[in-house]
Amino acid sequence: MKALFALSILSLAFPAMAKSPVALDERLAIELIAQEPAIVTPTGVFADVRDNVWAIECNTHFPPKDYKGYPTDRIFVFSGYEQADAGAPTTRPGTAVAGGTGEGIDPKTGLAPGVQRTTFADGLMQAMSLTMTPAGKIYVVCRNEIVYFEDKNHDLKPDELDLGDGKKGDRKVLLRLDTKATYPHNGLNGATLSPDGEFLYFCLGLNTGFDYSVIGSDGSKISGGGEGGSVWRCTPAGGKVERIAIGFWNCHDLTFDAFGRLFAVDNDPDDIGPCRLLDIIEGGDYGWKFKNGRKGVHPFTSWNGELPGTLPMVAPTGEAPSGILAYESDNWPADYLGQVLVTSWGDHTIQRFELKEKGASFTSTPVNIIRGGDDFRPVGITQASDGSVFFTDWVDKSYTLHLKGKLWRIRAQAPTTQPAQKETGGSAAGSVAKRLRVDEVTKAPQSELIQLCSAPRREIRIAAGDSLAASGDTGLRELVKLYVVEKDRPLIDAYWSLKRRERAEGPQSLLRALMTELSPLPKISQPGDNVFADRIVRYPDVGNSSQSLRRLLTFLGQDSAAQRRDTLLGLCKVLDVTARSDPFLNAAAIHALSKNSILPEDALTRESAVLAPFYPLIARRNGSPEAVALLPKFLKSPDPAVRRVALQWIGEDRLVQFKDNLPDALKAGDVTRDLLATYLAAQEKLNTPLPEPGKPPAERSVSQFAVEFLLDEKNDAKLRKVALELVNPTDAKPSSKQLVALIEPMGLAAIQAIAWRDDPESQAALRAVAADAKRDIAERREAVLGLARSALASAETKSVLREILLGRGTRRVPAAEAKDPPTPITADKPNGVRGERNPANGIVDPAGKRRVPLQAATEADLRLDALKAMRGALDAADGKALVDELMSAATKKQPDGTAVLNEAEWAEQIMLAFKPTPEALSAADRKRLEPLLPQRSPLLWQVIGSGADRDSRPVGDPDAGRRVFALATGARCYVCHQFDGRGGAVGPDLSRVRSAMDDAKIVESIIEPSKEIAPLYVSSIIELKNGDTISGVGLNEAGAAYVAIADATGKRHRIKAEDIVSRREEKISVMPEGLVDTMSVQEFRDLLAYLRRL
């Protein structure tokens, strides 16, 4: 969301935003059903099977002091809209073919022609969403409670309920969230019923980190706080509360698809993105915890399955995803069947996601199907019985109530079925002249019900299956027959009907039907479950072995603990073959195994090489004293992954009794940067008090506590060198004197750190390294990079750099030392991986007869680095000498006819070097360079971002991109952004930007930084009493008496609040325009390669 200040999911090629939303798929049409005053600031929406659309009008979400709207939230029911049946007209008053204009809406009522609005209920507070059953059981999710209504006679009026103790009322609270948190939309959010009707699933947002208890109607209670968002379930009566998945930022809505797979949308933390579409499994950990900091960059945080035991996203979504729907109907074009639809409040879009199997889960790519302008803010989304889709629109970007709102509908432009006979089974089941209603299905004879179980519309299949299941043993046997012979959707809907009947009447009737139709049966511990499991994993939509194993792991939860353990250990051998690194299979196995008394480690090691490294995760989930007692053993494991899990467990749970054991993790084997960062983070957790409820922890960076480790000479020298890699050199500590003292013992790592500093002591040390021709070339290149910070101001620095640039500060390599050139870059290299450095990137060897050997080529690269460092510091003589040498080299060829250098790169770098001082490069020399320069245009950057030219162009070099990021005479990305812990903290940390967006979106946010500015990074203009104005991004570090702001140069300003006259938001990003003009084309490629490196 916040990467590069301006992240947008939108297409680069799309024209300027339309005022009204438009359908980007020409086969769809959007129409306006209602708007203010009929409904304002709507949130949740649900379409029932009787063609009514229920929508929440929210009047309690940040109301202004003078709010003139209704005092509480209301539920409206909209009916009378035109059905999207076959043969129905595709336009009418109030609609437009491609986009919704609102023409025909009655300005007094806010309703489209024929539409009626009924008020079902009011008196609700901070209502977010609603769902219901065909029988009229209605669940309304409010911030701190789930409220239950009934309308069993379908008269759009609440039925009277028995509240107990002789009390009656039209509603009752099924479930409560007991907390001090008050933020409207990070408490209870979305809800959905499971297809078998057994559970109501709901999500809880981050709750601003406050402690909470979720309390069910039966008194079941689970407490928490600080762990972030989570997914829960309870019975439809509000009992048996369970938390089934954790690791979300602000999970806002969730849905089941036809196959019983649960999906959710999740918003993103402050400093990482993107927002996520997630595949939810029981026991899943999706990586984020409030107690580890809001920014999302803590070593304990995972956003896309980066850490062991955490799960990746299915796909990134647009900003602020608010609603989700799995589309199941025949009204829209056939390719939409089974796809997931998501509303993006922040990106003004509705997106579709085609699910593609990836192991035991899925992957997808967002495709925009509806797009609007700034006043298009889609929230809830639902599918009507006719296959059209309704969604609510908050309209304004303000969270504060504003008395605006809309209800929209999307349907197919033309009917997807042809008029024929009445919708029934067989071939006729796919054609309609008259759309059946659910209440009509329930009256059909059994012979017709059997046919309707294969109908194209899911609500018809479900109604027919439920009616068959309720018709006695004969109907059950017919349904079992369908279950055995059918495929795909009819199969699974028959399965859900069987399961719902089993729940309603107990297992005996279902068992008799199964015995009759499937005899002889395999042994079953619960009636039907093993048979269902065996059948369900074979249907084509989930047909590969990974998907099947995931299903089996779920269904095996019905067995006893001993059976589950033995079966899972048996499956471990299969997991070794099929899973390997499949995170969903591993997570399912970890969750299932953790429910048993802790298993001996040798059993897992013996049975599964895959699961052995996850043993500490199984132990942590188990949480028993016996499991906790294993931590000292885990800390001594030779496997760094095991040690890492143990360190995070101790740190997150603040198990201070193991504080003295932590150093064992650094002695048991190799220590990576990640392992040391985890160790330091665990130490930090154990040494700091818990934050106050509702407040994130003080987010000391890894760098801050790595410094302490680095400077402690009692620590192992190798580990101190690893710690140095974790230090952000732009921080005040360590001092330059301390860093310079590390050059000899630590070499390149120390020089790389010092290169970030511009103080005299650091620059003097860098000059000494750069001028020393005996030092390693890699060390000298880092020193030259750092000298760019003083090239304009220091004569000494200019002198050193000029010596290198003109070739007098390099050494020739004796022939005996020369190596064969590395293999040139080819198009089949992985994107973003560049193999060996290409020697053709340097100035030709003085002899001019052959490709420069590797060492000499690296020295030529050193000269190119010096040219970059001296931008703006060269004179006319330098310019002529450089152009003369380049033109001479350009005439030289390799024996195979290829150029000995990258002429375009050198020509561009010469032009960039004289851009600050154009008068120093003569017109004649510029003309000589022109034929060598690449053509630069907006289209070029888009082509690079799309990767369309990678077959014909070299891919970027991540290490060269690191130098572009840190170059003081270039784009100066480091001023505002961090990468791998180094750089400024004004803008978002870019360490995980690759998981946030693809190359095209990175390119877009560099080229058009103001196109879409994330809320956290909107800049402000502050006017002071003394007449000065300061523009920049607000920093959350000043307290009430001061305002902290960082300007475009990265400079921080601390301003007394009493000195401020006015403060207004600016629509222009603090990230400057024209950054691509500070880079050559190759540097741009290199920067992209660096940013996409994970």
Would you tell me the structural class of the helices and strands? alpha+beta
Question: What number of structural domains do the residues give?
Answer: 4
The helical percent reads 25-40%
By DSSP (H or I, 4+ residues per run), the number of helices equals 34
Q: Compute the gyration radius: what is it?
A: 32 Å
The total beta strand count reads 40
Taken as a percent bin, the fraction of beta residues is: 15-25%
CATH topology of the largest domain: Neuraminidase
Find the CATH superfamily of the largest domain: TolB, C-terminal domain
Strand order of the largest sheet: 8-9-10-13-16-17
| Global morphology | globular
Known CATH architecture of the largest domain: 6 Propeller
Q: Please give the CATH class of the largest domain.
A: Mainly Beta
How far from one another are the termini? 17 Å
Mean pLDDT: 80
What is the topology?
Elements: E1 22-23, E2 28-35, E3 42-47, E4 53-57, E5 73-79, E6 95-96, E7 116-124, E8 127-132, E9 137-142, E10 145-150, E11 161-164, E12 167-169, E13 172-179, E14 188-193, E15 200-204, E16 212-216, E17 221-224, E18 229-234, E19 242-248, E20 250-256, E21 262-267, E22 276-280, E23 284-285, E24 315-316, E25 321-326, E26 340-344, E27 349-353, E28 356-358, E29 361-363, E30 367-371, E31 378-383, E32 389-393, E33 406-412, H1 438-441, H2 446-452, H3 458-469, H4 473-485, H5 488-505, H6 507-518, H7 529-536, H8 545-555, H9 561-578, H10 583-594, H11 601-607, H12 615-622, H13 625-628, H14 631-635, H15 640-652, H16 664-667, H17 673-687, H18 702-711, H19 717-726, H20 736-740, H21 743-746, H22 748-754, H23 760-771, H24 777-787, H25 795-805, H26 854-869, H27 876-890, H28 903-913, H29 923-929, H30 938-946, H31 958-966, E34 978-979, E35 982-983, H32 993-996, H33 999-1007, E36 1019-1024, E37 1029-1035, E38 1042-1046, E39 1052-1056, E40 1060-1065, H34 1081-1091
Parallel strand pairs: 19-23
Antiparallel strand pairs: 1-30, 2-6, 2-33, 3-4, 4-5, 5-7, 8-9, 9-10, 10-13, 11-12, 13-16, 14-15, 15-18, 16-17, 18-19, 20-21, 21-22, 22-24, 25-26, 26-27, 27-30, 28-29, 31-32, 32-33, 34-35, 36-37, 36-40, 37-38, 38-39
Helix pairs in contact: 2-3, 3-4, 3-5, 4-5, 4-6, 5-6, 7-8, 8-9, 8-10, 9-10, 10-12, 12-15, 15-17, 17-18, 18-19, 22-24, 23-24, 23-25, 24-26, 25-26, 26-28, 27-28, 30-33, 31-34
